[in-house]
Amino acid sequence: MEHKILLKESDIPRQWYNLAADLPTPPLPPLGPDGKPISPDMLAPVFPMNIIEQEVSTERWIDIPEPVLDLLYRWRPAPLRRAVYLEKYLKTPARIYYKDESTSPPGSHKPNTAVAQAYYNKEFGIKRLTTETGAGQWGSALAFACALLGLECKVFMVRISFDQKPFRKFMMETWGANCVASPSTETNAGRNVLQETPDTPGSLGIAISEAVEQAVTDPSGQTRYSLGSVLNHVMLHQTIIGLEAKKQLAAAGEKLPDIIIGCAGGGSNFAGLAFPFTADKINGANIEIIPVEPAACPTMTRAPFAYDHGDTACMTPLLAMHTLGHAFVPPPIHAGGLRYHGMAPLVCQAIVEGLFTPRSYHQTKCYESALTWARTEGTICAPETSHAIAAAIDEAEKAREEGKEKVILFNYSGHGLMDLTGYNAFMTGKLSDYEMPEEEIRKFTKDLERMPKAEMRKSGRW
Ligand SMILES: Cc1ncc(COP(=O)(O)O)c(C=O)c1O
């Protein structure tokens, strides 16, 4: 039995997989301020046209440009590992595999899309990228990608994480980026929030408003905005994870997994692993596919499916998704990357179809799972990743109770070596759980009643 299944560089997938081509009911289109579907031109001040083309594409396979592969070879193909020590500890007949995305230079799956986005922007003649970051993983991934391609990079980092994770900022600066706490005084969006709530912990929605504003107001026209999750092209770039995993599982002598798990903030690492297997499920395979979120930010499990803005200042188009409302300010839980109010429209449409079964966990259960993991498998996972591990442990225990030899595959989306303050808070008893009260959800989602209605269309097959 192999502990790690490695692919040769020559086995790297050369095309990304686009789930939009295969979903039985396509996702609803993004809408502009007039409530009508937006045209690609309307996105041009924000993204370069080559990325907009990918955003709206319904082609099943999209070639990965050779120069992007050259960038990805720095850490890809990523290992598929078998969690044998955890299996033994749990005394489970399940075989637990995980795709190790923590081996990239910034330590997560985020550079898979960061290098692609930086490449397409550079090809289009762009000189500077702006972005937001929650936990700092995305900001450091884009800083890394911009350093490789010689682009300037500006990162608005959610205040609470900026304070909790100073080392992520130092990483971004090491790669040459400029990182400020959001809300900042550099943008109208930031100043407005600060005036109303000077002590706000910030949110991804606010940071996105700031980054978009700086991109679209650059008089030189040479700045664009880059998003680390949620949008179709980001999901697309991440599918290299699942495509590699398919080859690796086959090399390990496995057929399709029974259960696939990923944590989901905006949906990208989950989608990256799950979408290529979702195609098999659409074609009849019996796979349970589980995106996991924090109970404190219950987008998929408790929020309505509605049209909403991706940011607090309502600068982005309306997306059809599960959303807690663009004004939502999440409680300061330690999994900073899982505190977004919305979720990728492609992931949400698959949830509406019944292809995915989302679940949520409280943070203390996730940290307990992270400690079990560290003391069996040995590595220290990101707080976001601990949500996937908690679900994998639950499923492995269920397999033990049922006496079934299930194959569980999950995404190890990142390491937690920059997140040790969260571990320390947990181990010294300072973390508590937070269940979002129903009235709180109603308060933040009230505004959505004014938006165009998002119809829940489904084929009824699942
Ligand atoms: C390690 C890690 N995992 C998961 C996520 C969640 O993002 P997404 O749902 O886009 O994968 C983040 C976000 O910052 C992250 O840093």
UniProtKB/TrEMBL annotation:
Cofactor names: pyridoxal 5'-phosphate
Assembly and interaction partners: Tetramer of two alpha and two beta chains.
Name used for this protein in its record: Tryptophan synthase beta chain
Keyword set, alphabetical order: Amino-acid biosynthesis, Aromatic amino acid biosynthesis, Lyase, Pyridoxal phosphate, Tryptophan biosynthesis
Residue ranges of every copy of the Tryptophan synthase beta chain-like PALP domain listed in the record: 75-411
Entries under Pfam families matching the protein: PALP
Catalytic activity field: (1S,2R)-1-C-(indol-3-yl)glycerol 3-phosphate + L-serine = D-glyceraldehyde 3-phosphate + L-tryptophan + H2O
Broad EC category: lyase
Gene behind this protein: trpB
Function summary: The beta subunit is responsible for the synthesis of L-tryptophan from indole and L-serine.
Pathway this chain belongs to: Amino-acid biosynthesis; L-tryptophan biosynthesis; L-tryptophan from chorismate: step 5/5
GO molecular function term, any single one: L-serine hydro-lyase (adding indole, L-tryptophan-forming) activity
Family from the record: Belongs to the TrpB family.
Residues modified to N6-(pyridoxal phosphate)lysine: 110
EC number: 4.2.1.20
InterPro entries with a match to the protein in the record: Trp_synth_b-like, Trp_synth_beta/beta-like, TrpB-like_PALP, TrpB-like_PALP_sf
Gene Ontology CC, one term: cytoplasm
